[in-house]
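Hi, here's the filled form for the chain we discussed.

Project: internal
Contact: R.S.
Residues: 360
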Amino acid sequence: MERLGDDELALVLRSLDHWRDRKSCTRVCRQWRRIEALTRTSLRVIDPFSLPQFLPRFPNLTALRTDTPISDAHLHLIARFCPDLRSLIFNVRRSLTDLLEKPQSDDLTDAGLGALALGCQKLQHIALRNRRGVGDSGVVELTKHASDLSDIDLAWCSKVSDRAVAEIGNLTSLSVLCLRGCFLVTDIGLTHLANRPSSRTLTVLDLSECDRITDAGVCQLKMLPCLEKLSLADCGPKVTDVGGSAIASIGSLRSLDLSWLINLSDATLLELSRKCKKLEEINATGCELITGAGVLAFSNHASMKNLLLASCYSVSMEDVVQTVRASPSLRYVGLDKSLRGWMSSSAQENIDPVCEIHWL
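And the returned structure, exactly as it came back:
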């Protein structure tokens, strides 16, 4: 077989998706190893300390991932050699004990994030879950230089506050924002988010475990006309039916997580069933004030598919069965195991073909 030219070989290698196939190609000869590196667009970094040795080989990366500690010096290196990055996933898994400790001295900080933002201005998706060295100044630099960001995940970045959220609000392409566990975020941050350019493009917003949020901030969310998925899970007792009724004004909602909001009642579900005609999923786990009246409100709802009602002890089986039978679109209901004994076998058989019951 005649020796393939670089262009022809590049066409062949670009058709290979599996990493094992690409790795095998690097062992054929030096040419194949060089062209494989030039056509590689994504990379998972297992050992960041090896970055200086191998990163210069991959000048066309658009996606980079690692779940290990990575230093500011490494981020400077990435900014230098990977200017075309579109996706950066630096999530790290940590136990609750780890989360309560100080950030590791060798992990990234705002300084490194600022350098990365300056060198990688084409970023569109960035995920920094549990990176405890990330705070407001790094996020501000990120939004300033990478203005095309559309997907930001800052879950459990405990230094992120309203200042960062205000700057995120200035992005004009933002569609997904996760602030889960960012407990410094308050109503002030939500007000900025709802009154800045990102309010017109945001479709997914996760505020779960942001327990400084109150009804005043939640009411601002009705200014997000394109919002389709919203999580307020575990946001604390200061979110009540006042906020719940306000978000019912978001007609575009499809998925809503209200779990463990102990001061939400049937009033919120009644408003949601009346105004949110596109709503397909509600998680009301742990909302103990909800009764059968709230569940029955979704009888004949045109779009509702999934209802999660675990730990809703005032909901009866009769109400659930009646709702399921009157709702042709309903496909899944999650109920507390304590209700299982109250459901007759005949009732179970009658609704099984229509809707799946799970005991949680």
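Let me know if anything looks off before we file it.
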